[in-house]
Amino acid sequence: MDAVTFLLLGVGAGALYVLVAAGLILIHRGSGLINFAHVAIGLCGAYTYWELRELRGVPTWLAVLAGIAVSAGLGAGVHLLVMRPLRNASPLTRLIATLAVMAGLQAAMQLRYADSIYVRVEPMLPTGAVSVLGVTVPGDRLLVFGITVLLIALLWAVYRWTALGRITAAVSENLRAAAALGLSPDVIASLNWALGSAMAALATILIAPISGLTPALATSLIIPALATAVVARFASFPIALATGTLLGIIQSEVTYFVPVPGLDAAIPFVVVAVVLLARSKPIAARGEPVFRFASVGTGGVRARYVLPVTLVALLLIWGVVPIDWVSAVGVQLPVALIVLSVVVVTGYTGQLSLAQFAFAGIGAFVAARLTVLGAPFGVALVLACASTIPLSIVVGLAGARARGVNLAIVTLGLAVTVEAMIFNNPVLTGGFDGLQVGTPTLFGIALGAIATPAVYASFTLLVFVGCAVVVGNLRRGRAGRRLLAVRSNERAAAALGISGLGAKVYAFSLGGVLAACGGVLLTFANPIVTFGDAFTPLRSIQMVQEAVVGGVGWLVGPLLGSTLDPGTVGSKIMEAVAGSPNPAWLTLVGAVILVVALLQAPDGLVPLNTHLLRAGWDRVTRLFGRSPSDRPLAARGVLGGDEGPSRVAPHTLHVTDLKVRFGGTIALDGPSLTVGPGEVVGLIGANGAGKTTLLDGVTGFVPLDRGSVLLDGLELHTLGPARRARAGLGRSFQSLELFDDLTVRENLLSASERRDPWAYLTTLLRPGVPALNAMTRAAVQEFDLGPDLDRRPGELSYARRRLVAIARTVAARPSVLLLDEPAAGIDAAEAHELGELIRRLADVWGMGVLLVEHDVELVMRVCDRILVLENGREIATGTPEQIRMDARVIESYLGGSTSPVEV
Amino acid sequence: MIAALALAMSGCASSSLGGGDASSGPGDTVKVMMFNSGQAATLDWSPAGTAVSTYVDAYLNPAGGVHGRQVELTVCDDQLDPNKAAACAQRAVTEGVVAVIGGMSINGNRFLPGIEAAGIPYVVTLPLSSADYTSPVSFPMQGGTVLNYSGAAAELVRKGCPDVGLLVNPIATSAALEDFARKGADAAGGRLVSTVAVPVGTTDMSAAFAKLKADGADCVVIGTVEQDFVNFANYSAQSGSPIPLSASTGGVPPQALKALSAEAVGQLELVGGSYGAGDRSIAEIQQYADLLSKTHPDAPIEDKGAAAWGTAAALFAAMASVEGDLTPAAIATALARHCPVGTEVYGPDVCFDAPATSNPSYRRTFNANLFVYEVGEDRSITLVAPPAAQPELLPT
User: Do the beta carbons of residue A362 and residue A383 sit within 8 Å?
Assistant: First the structure.
C-alpha cells in the first residue's frame, strides 16, 4: 500500500515537471533553442498573478490572465531582443544567453520582491485529501495531474492538426525551406516563445500553491524539467508526459524505499542518461546537423610575450597591488584553470560538458583525503589530477554516443550524482567538520593563502601559465587538429581515420585533469576543506558561461571569463566601482553585461578584442606601405619541395553481397564489387538506388545486415569507420563535410598526419611545426590549392571546396578512394578537369577509385568498369560500353528509350 | 578594461590596507573588525552589522572608547561567499586588528584558520561552522547550531511528541544535524525515528512528509534551507493531519515566517540562543533600541541586531579589563578569564572560562542557555519560558 501512496504522490510531483517541460518543448519546436530562462520567465508571471490577486485584490481569473500575459510578452521580448539577434551565433552561445536571462530575471525578482522572497500562494484548487486505490493523498496533486494531462492532449492536438503546428514543424525541420514558402521564421519563433512562456506562467501559477513562490525555483525546477524534455527529444508532448510522471514517481518511491540522501535527485538523471545513451548512435548519422561552434584561437604562446607578462604579474602581486587584490588573484586563477578545462572539452572538441566543476570537486576531495592520510601536497595534487582520468574515460565513452544537448544532460546528471554521492556524503567529506588539510607546502615553501597570499597567488599564476602553455601546445599540435576535426565534423573525421572516441576520451581526460588541478588550488587556499554547497552542478554551468564570455576556444578566454566569478578580480573591480551593493544588483547588472557582451561578441570577448587589435595593427602596417597579406605563401611555409606523387600501397577492395536495412526498408540488397589498384569503378543509379548507402556500408557508417568488406585479406566489416580509414579506405562526401573551423592547410594536415596515440601526450610538450608531407604537397600541386592553403573553406567557391574535399581524402594516402558525387554543383569545364584528375589518381598515384556520380558522361569517360544499382539491387555491371548498351540500364536509369546512349 | 582595473586598484590602494601593528600605543585608535553575512539574497544579517557599528560609533567611542582609545571598526561582509570570507580574514591579519566580532557566517571554516594563526580572538554571535566550535580563538556567545537543533528535538519531546522526525537537505554539513537532533530527543526521553533528506528546492514536499509519517514521526525538526522550510511547514498544515514542527531561529529569516500559513504558524516553535529584541527588560536590548532609533530612525529593532549588540558589549567589556597593551593575546586571555561576560542578552551567567561539554568537536561551547519561542499571528516571536542552561543537550 505504501508503494501505491508514494506512486500517487509522485504523479503529482511529476506533473510539475511535465508542465514546465511542455513549455520548453514549445520554445524548442519554434526556435530550436533550449531555454534555461523558461521557469524564470514563468515565475515573473506567477509573481504578477500573486501580487495582483493577493496584494491588490484583483479577481483570480483576471490575475491569472495578467500573469500569463506578462510571461508571454516577456518571452516574446527575450526572443526579439536577445535570441533573434543571436540566431547566427553558436548554439552554445545562445544557450548561455538564456542562462544570463535566467540569472537577470532571478535577480530582478529578488529585488522587486525583497520582502517576499518566499511567498505562500493561496490554492485555486481544492486541497482536501481524497482516497484513491485505498490510500489517501492530497486532492490538488491529482487535479494538477489531470489538468496536465488535458493540457498535454490539447498541445498535442494543436501541434498535430492545426496550421500553427504544421508551420512550426516546417520551421523546425528546415528554416530556409520554410522561409522560401513565405513563412517567417521570426514570427513563428516569436509566437512559440510567447506560447511557451505563457505555458510557463500557467505552470508556475498551478505549481505555486504546492511549491510556494521564490526566485530560487527558476533553477531548482528547470533541471528535472529539462531532463524530461530531453527524453521527449524536445518534440513529443506525450513522451514528456510519460517521462515527467515517471521521474516524479521514481523520486517519490526512492524517498520511501531507498532513503539514501541525494539518491532521489540523482536517480532520475541516471535513468535519463541511460535512455539517452541507449538511443544514441556511436557515429553521427548522415544528415545529422553539424553545429557551428565558436571560433578557435591559434593557441600561439609566444615566450617573448608570456614571460614578461608573467614577470610583471608577479611584480604586481609582490609589490604593488593591495593584499585583498592579491587574494582575489589567488581565487581567480584556480577558477580560470577550471574554465580552461572547458576550453579543451567544449572549445576544442565540441563536447558540451556540464560536469567540469564536479571534476574539480573530485580533485579537491581526493587531494584532501590524501593530505589527511599524510601525503605531501605535491603528491596529493598530482594524484588528485590523475584520479579524475577513470571517470573522464567513462564520460568520454558516453560522449561517443550522446551528442550536443544530450551529452550536456548526461554530464549534468553526472554532476548531480557526484554531488549527491560524494560531496554530500559526510562519511567521505568529513561532514560538519570538513577535512583538515592545513597549509600546503611544496619544496619546503609554505603556500598558505591566508598567511602568505602573495606566495599562493604566485603559485596559482605559475600553474595557470604552465597549463595554458600545455593547452596552447595541444591546439597547435597534431592532437589538437584531431580534436578540432572531431568537433567540426565527426563523420568526416572518422572517414579520415580520426577516432572520435579516442579524441573525446582524451579531451575529457585532459579537461578532467585541468579541472581537478583548479579544484585543488581553489580548496587548498583554506586549511579546512568543506564540501557543503561548494561543488554544485550549477557551478559547472557557470564555468561554461564564463568560458563562452571569455572565448571558449581561446587560451586567454578563461582569464577574462573567470572575472565573473565571486571573490575574483572582477568582484574587486565591481566593488571598487559600485561599492558593496546588494548582490542581487550585481547579478542583475552582470547578467545585462553578459547579454550585451554576447550580442556584441558571440564568440567571446577575447576574439573580439583580438580582431580589433589585429585590424589596428593592419592599419598601422598599411601606413608604412606594406599590406599585411603581401607576404608570399612560400614565406609562410606553405609549399615545400616539388616532388611528384608516390604510388600508394596497392590493395584491392572486395565488397560481397551487402545488405543494409533501415527499419523495415531494405536499402541495399546484395550488390558486390571489386576495386583494384589503379582502377576506376563507377557506381550509378537513380536517386534512392542505394549508392551512398553502399559507400556508407563499405566505410562503416551504417551497420551491415549481411555481407563482407575486405581489403585484400583484411576483414573491414568488423571495424569502425576510423579503423577502416586507417586500413586504407578513403572517402569524400556528397555534402563535402569539410572542417569549416580549420584552414585548408589544417584540413589537409588533419588528413595526412600520423594517427599514433602518443601524439596525445607528446603534443602537450612539443607541438611540432605543422608541415605538409610529400604526398599532401603533391596533392596541393595536383589540385592547385597553394593559394588557398591559409583560407577557411567558407571563403572558397563551391568548386574549390569540392577540390579541397577530394584533396583532403587523397592526402590520407588511401589505397582505395570512394568519391560520392564529386561533380555535383560544378560546371562542365570543371567536371572535365575533375575527370582527368580522377584518372590521374588511378593511373599515376595507383589508387583504386569507386566513383558515385550522376554525371553519366564523366562516369563513362573515366571508369574502367561500372556497377548499376536499382532499389538497392545490382542490375548491371560491366565496362562503360557494355553499360551504355544494357537495355535494362537504359530503361531504368539512362533514359526511357532502349536505344544505346550517345555520349 | 585595463584602465578600469588600474583605476579600481588605485582607489583601493589608497585605503587603509597594508601591514598593521596590533599593539600600537595609547592615543592611537584600536582596530576591531566584524565578520558578517549581510546583504545575502535570503539570509540577511546586515542588522547585526548596523548594531555593532552603532555600538561603537554612538555608544562606545563617545564614552571614551577602550582604555581611552577610540575604536576603529570595519565591517567585512562576506555575503555568504567563501572567497570573500577568506579575504576578510586576510584583511584582519594585514590591518592588524586586535579582535574580531562575528555576526553570523556559514564560512567560519574559511576565515578562522587565518585569524587563529594570528592569534586574533573572535567573539561570535551565532556559531555555525565546526571551526566556530573548535578554534582556540573562538568565543561563541551561544550554543548555536549544536544546541538549537538538539534543543528543537528536545522541546518537541517535552511537549508530548516522543517520536521525532528530522527533515534536512542532503549536504555534507547537514548530516551533523541528525546527531544533534538525536541527542536532544534522547536527552528528553524521546527518540529520533526518521531522517529524510530532500534536495534543495524540492517543489512538492508530500512524499517527504509521507515518508516521515510512515516512519512513525509525529513531529518534525526542520533543518533545511528556508525555501524548503516554508514548503514543508505549509504542506504539513495543508495535509489534513498537521504535526508539530520545530526549527532554529538562526535558520528562519523573517521572510520565511511571513510566507507561512496561519495553520503552519500554529504548529511551529523556534529555538534560539538569545533574547528577542522585543524583550526590553534586558538592559542591553533597551540600550540598543534607544540608540538605534536615534541614529537609524528607519531601522527596525530586531533580534539579530540585539544579539550582535550583546556580543559587542561582551568583547569591549573584556577589552576594558585588559591590563597593559591591547594585544590580541591579552584580549583573548581577558575573554577567557572574564566571567560573567556582562551581557544578559544571552541569558544569565555567560562565561568563557569553562566549556559546557567535554566533546572535543564542540569544545568551545561555553553557553548552553536555550530560548524557546512561539510565533505570533503577526509572525513576531515571543519567549515561551525563561531561558535555562541545558548542557545535557550538548554532545558529550
Answer: no
Residue A223 carries which side chain, given as an amino acid letter? I
Measured between beta carbons, the chain B residues lying within 8 angstroms of A12 are 204, 206
Residue A63 shares a structural domain with residue A202: yes
State the nearest Cα–Cα gap between B227 and chain A, in angstroms: 7
Which residues in chain A have Cβ-Cβ distances shorter than 8 Å to B79?
Answer: 566, 580, 583
In a domain, A199, yes or no: yes
CB contact under 8 A, B226 and A251: no
Same domain? For A529 and A663 the reply is no
Tens of pLDDT, residues A843-893: 988 999 999 998 888 999 999 999 999 989 999 999 999 988 888 888 777
Q: Is the pTM of this model over 0.90?
A: no
> What CATH code would you report for B9-143+279-353?
3.40.50.2300
Contacting A residues, span 260-289, partner chain B, CB-CB under 8 Å: 261-262, 264-265
* Residue A50 contacts B where some CB pair is shorter than 8 Å: no
**Is A631's pLDDT higher than 60?**
no
Structural domain contains residue A248: yes
Is A95 at the interface with chain B, CB within 8 A?
no
Judgement on whether residues A409 and A494 belong to the same structural domain of the protein = yes
Return the exposure string of B188-212: e unless at least 16 CB atoms fall within 10 Å of the residue's CB, then b: bebebbbbbbbbbbbbbbbbbbbbb
> Does domain B145-272+373-393 correspond to CATH entry 3.30.310.80?
no
Task: Looking at the structure, tell me whether residues A344 and A248 fall in a common domain.
Answer: no
Q: Which residues contact A529 (CB under 8 A, 6 or more apart)?
A: A364, A368, A429, A430, A434, A435, A437, A523
Pairs of residues, one from chain A and one from chain B, whose beta carbons lie less than 8 Å apart: 243
Inter-chain CB proximity B129 and A110 less than 8 Å: no
Same fold, B9-143+279-353 and B145-272+373-393: yes
Q: Which residues of A241-260 are buried (b: 16+ CB within 10 A; e: fewer)?
A: bbbbbbbbbbbbbbbbeeee
Q: How many domains does chain A have?
A: 3
Element holding A377 (H helix, E strand): helix A377-387
Q: d(Cα B344, Cα B371) in Å, to the nearest integer?
A: 13
Q: At A762, which CATH number?
A: 3.40.50.300
Backbone angles phi, psi at A442, to 5 degrees: -135, 125
Q: If you measure CA to CA, which chain A residue comes closest to B132?
A: A433
pLDDT tens by residue, B233-283: 999 998 888 999 999 987 787 788 888 999 999 999 999 999 888 788 888
- Interface contact B201-A582, CB threshold 8 A: no
Is residue A745 in a domain?
yes
Query: Is A56 in the same domain as A124?
Result: yes
Q: Which domain holds residue A180?
A: 2-275
Minimum mean pLDDT range among A55-69, A307-321, A709-723, B103-117? B103-117
Whether residue A318 lies within 8 A of chain B, CB to CB, comes out as no
Nearest by CB: B176 against A13, A331, A431: A431
- Chain B residues in contact with A323 by the CB 8 A cut-off are 17-18, 90-91, 94
In a shared domain, residues A270 and A397: no
d(CA B150, CA B178): 9
Q: What was the ipTM of the complex prediction?
A: 0.78
Domain presence at residue A41? yes
Query: What is the Cα–Cα distance from A470 to A555, expressed in whole angstroms?
Result: 10
Please state, in angstroms and rounded to a whole number, the distance separating the CA atoms of residues A408 and A901: 55
Chain A residues lying within 8 Å of B234, measured CB to CB: 120, 212
Boundaries of every domain in chain B = 9-143+279-353, 145-272+373-393
Give the model's pLDDT for residue A630. 44
Chain A interface includes B175 (CB < 8 A): yes
Note whether A130 and A187 are same-domain residues.
yes
